Amino acid sequence: MVSSKQSTSAVPYRTLDVGCEGKDVEALQVLLGKLKYDVFPSGYYTQKTRLAVLQYQKDNKLTADGKVYISTYKMIQRKVSASTFPNRVLEVGCEGKDVDSVQVLLRKLKYDVYPTGYFTEMTKQAVVQFQKDNQLTQDGKVDVRTFELIQKKYNELRFK
């Protein structure tokens, strides 16, 4: 069985292939789902997961063998990170689904913020506290670095 610390931000310590099971497989399936591949996050590397991996490999001009090596996993992580970051820096005055998503994640991480979709002073203070807790520049804005770390911390919590 895999370590309880596996998450979509952690890299598996093994090559993933049909027959593997665990949190690392589930994290892979979540990532592939975010990239719109047809796979359900069950934690079991089934033929359906293999087909999704094969398609990913073909789409990205990789050797298509259906196995996920550490380098492949890291590439998938980078693609997901690039595709999920809001297309703007979030700060006081912003509103929308991207703001709501960040608020939901911060709330799940036990920060004092409510998901409203509006980036208020309360949201800014939660972001500043998160940045302080994680040794980031404390400007209260959600840039790429802050967003990726919020996602990483949430994934670590989720896969414990």
TrEMBL record:
InterPro entries: Peptidoglycan-bd-like, PGBD-like_sf, PGBDSf. Gene3D superfamilies: PGBD-like superfamily/PGBD. Residues 22-74, 96-149 form the Peptidoglycan binding-like domain. It comes from the Bacteria. This is Peptidoglycan binding-like domain-containing protein. It comes from Niastella populi.
